[in-house]
């Protein structure tokens, strides 16, 4: 108890993107098994989080939340115990309003009791949504309430606020005590959604940092259109190419977003697994200083082609070069723009985080042709030339 939580962005898996309301004990346990078997755990993923639709529609006679008797016939505690037995952590979901988005009981006016219930069950992480907030209630105050309840429930529970960037959340979330905050509406499993989220968050770096991270929503890497919508509509909807998923992952990593996987981790393709377990990319996300990146746009294509540059602990820099346009485009990063004039007599040694090798030492600038929706990500070292 009383150790700071979520120094770096949390990493894990959340049931919502792929399974929606279609969740149960077996699914959650087998997701935990997959974490261990596929190497996700070794790569640093830790939290297994159940999203909306895990409870009965009514509280019990004592006002306590009741796990859905069909989905979780043994209750929640054995699920948490199982996840803990695998050396992982367990997360659950509730809502600041009277009801969750799917109409289950929310924690409004039950904050302290619910926090206590979660602690009894062995919960380590709470995602806290914003549906059905009474119009007269102040959202900022409701997040402060649940933060206080969690901080005093007798167990370390990471508080993941999810009010989709509303009501000026950037201005008050850090001091509320939350460890992460959703800054935008729900991600969709398509390239336009990914691109839109990134564009909306490029100017928000000052608000994210150690112990309180800007959550750009769960990853869609590896979903290939097989989300909960696919089940509703009986067909695959949307999806991205593996190149787009690779770029999506690199963007979330460089932006210091929590890395919460949203695909079915029990059925990952080799490509999906390679993207999600890329240790060189994950290391940039988990850098201990948690400094967000600044953006440098390509002068002749500023809307679509840009670099993200992020100082890392110890002197290295993370550099991502991205092409959002529909054709191969050049990005030339002038080192002058990131603080390295040619007159310094120094250059950058670039280690490619996808090829996992050093590609050379460059002075003055590095220019590359980036295929459509692709990226290059480097760990750069300042060296004397
Ligand atoms: C939304 C939230 C999603 C998911 C969903 C569950 O408000 O943004 O991530 O939790 O509710 O109903």
Structure, explained:
With 385 residues, this protein is α/β, with parallel strands linked by helices. Helices cover 28% and strands 22% of the residues. It has 12 helices and 16 strands. The strands form 3 sheets. An 8-stranded parallel sheet has the order 7-6-5-4-3-2-1-8. Strands 9-10-11-16-13-14 form a 6-stranded antiparallel sheet, covered by helices on one side. The chain has a two-stranded antiparallel ribbon with strand order 12-15. Helix 8 (191-201) runs parallel beside helix 10. The structure holds beta-D-galactopyranose. Beta-D-galactopyranose (GAL) binds at residues 16, 51-52, 100-102, 129, 131, 162, 164, 186.
Count of DSSP helices? 12
CATH architecture of the largest domain: Alpha-Beta Barrel
Strand order of the largest sheet: 7-6-5-4-3-2-1-8
How much helicity do the residues have? 25-40%
Strand residue content: 15-25%
Indicate the overall shape: globular
* Name of the level-1 CATH class of the largest domain: Alpha Beta
Bound molecules: beta-D-galactopyranose
Calculate the terminal CA-CA distance, rounded to whole Å. Answer: 49 Å
How many domains? The number is 2
CATH superfamily of the largest domain: Aldolase class I
CATH fold naming of the largest domain = TIM Barrel
Q: Unreliable segments (pLDDT under 50, ≥5 consecutive)?
A: none
Structural class: alpha/beta
